Amino acid sequence: IRHAANRQLYGLHVTDFPHVKQAFVDAYCRLVAMKLVALRASDYMRTAALDDRRYLLYNPIVKMKVTREGESVINLLWDVIAAKGFERDTYFEMAARDIRALPKLEGTVHVNIALIMKFIANYFFNPKDYPEVTRQDAPGDDVFLFSQGPTGGLGKVQFHDYQTVYAQWDLPNVRVFTEQIAAFKECLVAAGLDEAQRKDTDVLMTVGDVFALVVYGQLILENARVYGSDEALIDQIFDVLVRDMAALALQLYSKPSASAKQQEYCTRMMRRPEPNPERYDRIYREEVLPLKDAYEMSA
């Protein structure tokens, strides 16, 4: 952002262009969300036990979703700095190359999506009460993990009710996202995948991405409470997630095998975020733009 803030085109600073502002705000929101999700998944991993193996879902979410979000952040920033991103011996040149490796090195994305699909039934339709998991950042002996607890029987793992997490947040875009989730859940019951679709990895990948986004949003909201995140920022993050969900719904709608009923539910999931120019401008002015003096790329 320092590069863009100090560069002028057509008599304007690059950071004055609306599409550049949008790219920076989206990148910032995605980055904050990545941190919240990864830290929260770590909490569940450190508190895992034989009767609480929720981390077996949350860990693959980090591997396949957080890593791909990192690629999205780099792509957004690269669109802004353009040719500057190709210069040698800069951090960005290295980051743009190495960020591509994470979704592959941390477990191939389609493998992790296939893994999380095993949890979808219990996640949506068979919740279980658990004690609240608190922030886990103190030194300790993570006995269960280091004794390599069992990883089989994934279809039997149960989760706390995600709906109670979403219900705690009365924010416009969280509400829209919750309605998108409700349409997806209803689709699973009323217009579920047929036998051919269950064997179609292309369809399963998209359904898995939708499911992953639901879990992703849940972990964001849980950790936003833990860290006392600004509600305006959380609403802006869900502005991004609503758009992501709508894009996935369009992908699912466009599958050749999608039935008329499935297309109907996908249409219900294609929602637009609730705009709030004041919130958006505040996030940009108070949280994004001040970073222009925090880092400087090599000359």
Outline:
The protein has helices at 2-5, 18-46, 55-81, 91-98, 102-105, 109-116, 120-125, 143-146, 162-167, 172-190, 195-198, 201-227, 231-253, 260-269, 277-288, and strands spanning 8-9, 12-13. With 299 residues, the chain is an all-alpha fold. Strand 1 (8-9) and strand 2 (12-13) form a beta hairpin.
Please provide a written account of the structure:
With 299 residues, the chain is an all-alpha fold. It contains 15 helices and 2 strands. The chain has one domain. Strands 1-2 form a two-stranded antiparallel sheet. A hairpin with a 2-residue loop joins strand 1 (8-9) and strand 2. The chain is globular and about 60 Å long. It starts with a helix and ends in an 11-residue tail after the last helix. The model has no long low-confidence stretch (mean pLDDT 90).
Number of helices: 15
Q: Can you tell me the number of structural domains?
A: 1
The percent range for strand residues is under 5%
Class by helix and strand content? mainly alpha
Lateral arrangement of strands in the main beta sheet: 1-2
The helix content, as a percent range, equals 55-70%
Radius of gyration: 20 Å
What is the H/E order?
Answer: HEEHHHHHHHHHHHHHH
- Biggest sheet features: 2 strands, antiparallel
Task: List how many beta strands DSSP finds.
Answer: 2
Mean pLDDT: 90
Instruction: Indicate the overall shape.
Output: globular
Distance between the termini: 14 Å
Throw out a few tags for this protein.
64% helix, single chain, 299 residues, mainly alpha
